[in-house]
Every structure is written in C-alpha cells, then in structure tokens.
Design a protein that fits this description.
Two copies of one chain form a homodimer. By secondary structure, chain A is α+β, with helices and mostly antiparallel strands. The first copy, chain A, has 15 helices and 23 strands. Chain A has three domains: 266 residues, 2-Layer Sandwich (BirA Bifunctional Protein, domain 2), CATH 3.30.930; 91 residues, Anticodon-binding domain (Rossmann fold); 70 residues, Translation Initiation Factor IF3 (2-Layer Sandwich), CATH 3.30.110. Chain A is globular, with a radius of gyration of 25 Å.
Chain lengths: 477, 477
C-alpha cells in the first residue's frame, strides 16, 4: 500500500490548511488547470463532467416548470448597460470592455456580459406586446465575466459558467410566485442531487442584487464552517420594465408594465461539492452527480479470466455509470485514484472472488466493505448508492446543525465569531447600521433572513431595539 | 382559410427573392431576433431547441468515439495568439479586443476567442508528458467571436455557437485517422439527422484553415444552388506542437512532438436546415431534429370531449415529441403556424373523427393526408416520421444531383456559372493561378477536392496542363 500512501500524502490535510487542501483537491482530482489568462481556468474533463450532470438535472427541472432555453449575445453596449441606474452601479466597476474589433476602434464600447438582465429586457421590449405574450419564462446557459481582483477556482473566477433565468409576468403576484418557485427548485436540487442542505431566506437590503426589489438566496455551510451563497433568485418588480419600457396591453386594452424575475446558479456549486463532502483522501461525490458511480478494479489482472469477468460485470450493470480500470497501474494506486476522484463505489474483483461468485464493494464515504454475491450485485449497488446519497445529505445536515449557534447579545456573538465556526443566528432590528457594526466588529456578514423564522430574543443583538427578524450571520466565500 | 392565406402571404416567395425569403423565415418562425449589438443575434426558443437537438445527437457521437468535453477560457492573451504564425495572420484581423477590466487598462490585450487552438495547445503543453497521456481527445461547446463586416443570421454572425474538437496524438497516422473519422461523423450526422447530403473532400491550399497542414470539409447545396461549408476537420501535423512545445516521452524514452487535429460545426447548420428544406410556407424540419414532431390540433375545440381526446392522444404517444395546441386561435391559423415552424406531422382530431375512432395526419413535407384509426396511431406516426426523414434526404440528394454539372473546358465552365445554379465539377492542375482565374472570371470558388475522384477529362479546365484532380466549384455562403 505504499503507492496509496504516497498518493494521498501529496495533498494537505483538510484540518491543517483548508484553503490549501481545497486547491490541492482541485488540481489533484484534475478538475481544473490554470491558464495564462489571470483568473480564468480550464475546466478539465473530470470537472466538466460534473457540470454536465448538474446542467442535465437542473435543465430537466427548468423545463418541467415551463421554461425554455434561449441564447443572448455575449456583448452589452455601454449605453444599454446604463439604462437601469442601480444595476450599472453594481456591475460597471467589474466588467471587461471590448474597445476594438479587428483593427478598428469601436464607436461605442461593449462589455462582456457580467449578467444579462439588460439584454433580456431589450429583447422583452421587442417581443412582448399583449397579455397573450405572457408569461415569458426564459433561461440561458452561458459563461459570464466579472473582473475580480482575487480569484479561486470555481468560487470566484473572472469567467464562470452558469445559467440565468429571466422571466416576465403580467402581475406582481405571478412574478413573486416564480421567484420563490425557482428558489425552491434550487433548494431541492441541492438537497436531492448534491446532498447539500441549504438555508432558504431573503437577503438584506445591503446584500441584495443590483437592481432587484428583493433577493432570495440558498446558503450552504462548507466543512470549515464558512457560508457559500449557492444560488439566488431575484424579484425585480417593474423597475427594469420602466427603465426598458416593457409594456403589454392587458385584457381591458390598458398598457401595463411587466413584472420580472431572474435567478441563477453557477459552477460555484462544484466548489460547494468539494468543500461540503471532500476529505483527506480527495473528493467525495454524491452518486446522483458523480460522472462515474462505480469503478471496477480487477485484482491480479494478469490471471486468466479476471479482466474478462470485470468487463462482463460492467456490461451487466445497466443503468449505472460504470468504469473498468484496465490500466497497468497497481490496485493500490487505483484505489487511491478513485478515492481522489470521489467515485462513490469501488468494486474489487479478483481470482478468489470469482471462485466464490462474489465481489467486494467499498463505499467511498464510509470505506465500509460489502461482500456481495454476483447474483445480487445490481440490487446491492442500487441500494448502496441510495444509502450513500441519503447518508451524505444527513452527515452534511448534522455538520451544519452542530455548527449553528444562537447568540442573543453582542458580546456572545463576537465571542462565538471568534471562537467557533459556522452559522450564527441572532435577532436583528432591520437597521443597516447594526448590520455594518456586526460586519466590522464580529467580521460576520448577514447571510439571509430565513423563511423559517424563530424568535430567540425580543431585541436586536446589536442595538437592543425591538427585533424584526432572525438572521443567519456567517463568514462567507 | 383566409387566416392561413394572410399568414403565409407575409413571407416572400422562395423563388422570387431567396435572400429575403430566408430572413423572413428566420423572423417569422421566431428562430432569431436582432439585438442592439451589430451582427449579434438573440437565438429564440424555436431556434435554440433545434440547436439543443443538434448538440445532444452530436455529443453522443463524440462520446461514442471516445471524446471528453472541457471548457477553456473565452479570452486569449495577444502574445499567446501570436505563437503560431499562420494562425495569427488568419485570425488577428477579425478578433474583438478587450483592453480594459473595470476601470483599469490591461497590460496585455486579450482577444475574445475566434477559435481555441492556442488555448488547447497551451493546456496540452502543461498536461502531456508521457506516451501514457496520449491521445487527448477533447471537445468544447462554446461561443466564439469573429468581427465580420457583413452578417446574416446563422450563416455569418459576429458571435456564434459551435463545438470545437481538439486532439493530440502520438503519431501522424493516428492524427490523420482522427481527422477523417470526425469528418465522417459530421457527414453521417448531416445525412442521418439533418437529412442533408454532403460532398466530403479536401480544401485546396488556398482555402485551408490558418495553421493547418490539411483541411477537410463537408459541402452541402442550398435550394438556390449555393454551397454551404457545413463542417471542417483539420490535420495540423506537428506545427502547433513545435510552436507551443508540446512534447512527450515515448516508450523508448525519446522526446517527440505530438500530432494534432481540430474539427468544428456551428449554428450555421440551422441555416443549412432552413435553406435545404424550407418552402414558401416556412420551415420544413426533419423529424430527427424537430423540437416538436407532432402538433395535435383539436377541431371544433368547443365541442365536448374534443380537447380531452386530443390530450388523451398526446399522453398515449410516448417516445415522440408531441404538442397539443389548445389556444383559442382558429384551426386554419394553427395549420399555418405549424407549417411555418416546420413541424413534420400535424394531427387533426374533431368530433367526426372521434365518432369514427380515427384522426387525420398531415405530412409537412408533402401535405399528404393520412386517415388513421386511433388503434394504429403510434405505429403509423412512427412509420410516417421515418418516411419523412428518408424522403427529405432523398429529395435533397436529387436536387443536388440534378444541379451538379460537369465542365471540361473553361468557356463551358464560365457559361454554366453564368446560366446554371449548383455545383460545377471540373478537372484542375493543382495550380493556385488557375484557382484564382476561375474565381475572377467565373466567380466560382473551389469547394473541395472530393474523396470520390473521377476523371472527367485529362487536362485542367483552365490552363489545359495535365489535371491532378477533380474539383467541386461553386458559389458559396
């Protein structure tokens, strides 16, 4: 097993240096590679295959809720970006500007889209005329660019892949319903597919999206206790509609502004998968999103019949994503490699197993060994993958709950922020001054005002005035 | 039927003004909408759904031939673009330049990728070390930008969607095999899915890709007789490998350069679908790629049981992409609309049909009506969709063959080019001077040197020196 030891020694321990552990995993599991463009990454096959599974599953959920995919230009003329005041203030400082096409200087600069509200609004103004044209439920899969100063793979990069839903509705009520519906789609996806529990809630005024009336978020907790904003859904009211003149004729022949929403998740979710489930041996992927669910490793591969049996097993396992490793690396090296890649189940098959008509299944998450008769293999794999999926969510939930702390006074909040990791729940008066003081003195930002409210005290943790709501605070990526 | 007439009257006849007909269809079938960014288009749900079907089918073919998907940055630093001399000369004049990030001027300009050879080469230099790392068979789905002067939806736009395969191999033989294999994948896809016959062949030196040793192409003929280069596959030799220093250690521990290929198709294929199959009533989509294969139109929808029956039929038709139109538009209007959208089969069901336990199927391509007992519906639809797919390919092949003309002397070639539409086959000596003369005097460009060679004369159609090969000439999009 010296191979295995060496392989694993090359990554930093998660509890020694979480940030270094993260970048080690990202490189060692071959998810990304750096490029010569600052802050831009190459998403390698192992990373992109995870993204494809995320896309496929989410896209089905979007279509099942009536959404259609479109593609907008990647460029936004400067004048178009400026149409909505709050929006341009939020994004203009961090966009990339195209100033030349070929050898000619452009009359108007174009920014590379940081998000596409302005383009969707322009399009909606063109195609929405009557109440019959509503609702418009559009989504787009694309890449966007934000000129960040410091970057980290998947979590914050100059360019990233995402989807952005943009919808237009006849009424405020319908738009509000859509905003919450899509937040719930994200939350269900995170729990059912990524095995990541989330807190659903509303962002404070300070933290909301540039141009939104309200921003909703799902917040998840990483293994180091930090929060990751994992998806957002915005209610825009008719602010963009007024700025872009998106009007329709209603059933009474009156002109009305539409009400809009937007919502998005990104390749950031891959960062969440790594930081919620990974361990000192590498990635741990939930079966629902793992590109390979079962890695078959022939033992004593040179012995007659072993490789044939491994392939026969692979062919019999229909409905699972299976891979046989027939390379000439040692079994120990392969064990470590598939642990690094986070493959949920390893299947070992050697001459002795073949004699006994069995094989060994090894769970990536618990390392539990399950000796399984070949006649029951398919059912056992199906059951074990389901168990892994369920157990991973449960462990992540326990981790989060154990690291969620209630503070009713400011000193305790500061002390907790200093000594503990995780989410800190505290009452808030709604005043931005308190939010800023908490950021300054406890180094915590408001994560969200959770939908599930609870009254843990009567007064604001900061100013002691009457509290309006319970808030989740934390340190965030 | 006055609704229907009016609907159709709004598009220009194909034989009166083919270019205007094309843009009418593109707008009227709601495939695209223009945006405020010159030369960039919004791909609307009807257009994007076709692209999704193209992607899905091609992606399966790429994966079945061992390829993996990755994602590269959208920016290329100017110095990286310049590493391969021919390549930069070909692309630099038509790229978009990013010069500012936020408010800061960049130290080095970045171009928005017009194609990603340079990025893949940089990445390959980083990750290829040993013969064990080969081959690398990567593909990427993304958008690219080329700063074109004149643009047309799908055919030539500043930004377009495509896939680009980039592979690295240990030997020239393997790389050459890959180049031809992927050209064949494209050709089969075009014939089997898009019902578009193609001529496979090699580009002349003059027409090959910037940086390639050899470029292979599939050429299809549009309804107006013009050629559309529908996909290309390039053999690079070790030219890029030398420019980017992509070397590996072979089994004898010797350093070797890799041999590379690249290959791509784009949203241009949607333009081909329109121009090969469309008619004066709109789009005609082959069933294999049509977002909706069967449009169910209830007749006398207000009568009891009609809509229920239509929905019951829709639910029973598993395995087909079916849509029930229950809007309050008239049946006549709906007939025209689904003809405009190119839906392969229309299914009419009214009170009289219900009494007789039957319905009417109407083929989009031939308008043939097929009265079908409901008990045989699924089999009939399956058979008819197959017939449509086969017949569309056959008609396109006949059109192409009827408009392919052989010319053995220069006068005939010029006369044909003047009087006829289509492909012109003529012998060529291989000299670029003759190619240029043909372009100048007959206004024809070389489309390809076809794989299927035939000797229709001994001498070059232009200079009368001994001929080297048969060439397809044409006017091209």
């Amino acid at each position: 097993m010296s191979d295995q030891k060496k392989f694993v020694e090359e990554i930093t321990s998660r509890d020694v240096d979480f940030a270094k552990w993260y970048t080690d995993i990202v490189k060692k599991a071959e998810l990304i590679e750096y490029s010569s463009v600052r802050g831009c990454m190459v998403i390698r096959p192992n990373g992109y295959a995870i993204w494809e599974n995320i896309q496929k599953n989410l896209d089905e959920r979007f279509k099942a809720t009536g959404h259609e995919n479109v593609y907008m230009p990647m460029f936004i003329p400067e004048s178009l970006l400026q149409k909505e005041k709050d929006h341009v203030e939020g994004f203009a400082p961090e966009v990339a500007w195209v100033t030349h096409g070929g050898s000619e200087k452009l009359q108007e600069r174009l920014c590379v889209r940081p998000t596409s509200e302005t383009l969707f609004c322009e399009h909606y103004a063109n195609i929405i005329h009557s109440y019959r044209d509503l609702p418009k439920l559009y989504n787009q899969w694309c890449s966007v660019v934000r000129w960040e100063k410091t970057t980290r793979p998947f979590l914050r990069s100059l360019e990233f892949l995402w989807q952005e839903g943009h919808t237009a509705h006849a009424t405020e009520e319908e738009a509000r319903e859509e905003t919450i519906k899509m937040l719930n789609v994200y939350a269900q996806f995170c729990e059912e597919v990524l095995a990541i529990p989330v807190v659903k809630g509303q962002k404070t005024e300070k933290e909301k999206f540039a141009g939104a009336v309200e921003t909703y978020t799902i917040e998840s907790m990483m293994h180091d206790g930090k929060a990751l904003q994992s998806g957002t859904s915005h209610y825009f009211g008719d602010g963009f509609a007024k700025a872009f003149d998106i009007q329709y004729t209603d059933k009474n022949n009156q002109l009305q502004y539409v009400h809009q929403t937007s919502w998005g998740v990104s390749t950031r979710l891959i960062g969440a998968l790594i930081m919620v489930h990974g361990d000192d041996n590498g990635l741990v992927l939930p079966p629902a999103v793992a590109p390979t669910q079962v890695a078959i490793i022939p033992i004593a591969m040179h012995k007659e019949g072993v490789l044939d049996k491994a392939r026969e097993i692979a062919n019999s396992l229909t409905g699972f994503r299976v891979k046989v490793d027939d390379t000439d690396n040692s079994p120990g090296w392969k064990f470590s490699q598939y642990e690094m890649l986070g493959v949920p189940l390893r299947l070992e098959i050697g001459p002795k197993d073949i004699e006994k008509n069995q094989c060994v299944l090894v769970r990536r998450d618990t390392r539990e060994k399950i000796f399984t008769p070949l006649s029951e293999l398919s059912q056992q794999i199906s059951k074990t993958l389901q168990d892994i999926q369920k157990d991973m969510l449960e462990r992540a939930r326990q981790m989060r709950d154990q690291n969620t702390h209630d503070a009713v006074d400011f000193d305790t909040l500061c002390k907790f922020a200093d000594e503990k990791i995780g989410f800190f729940r505290a009452m808030w008066c709604g005043d931005v001054a308190c939010e800023e003081k908490i950021k300054e003195e406890a180094a915590l930002t408001s994560r969200c005002i959770p939908f599930e409210q609870e009254k843990i005290a009567d007064t604001c943790v900061c100013c002691k005035k009457p509290a309006k709501s319970l808030v989740y605070w934390g340190k965030a990526y």
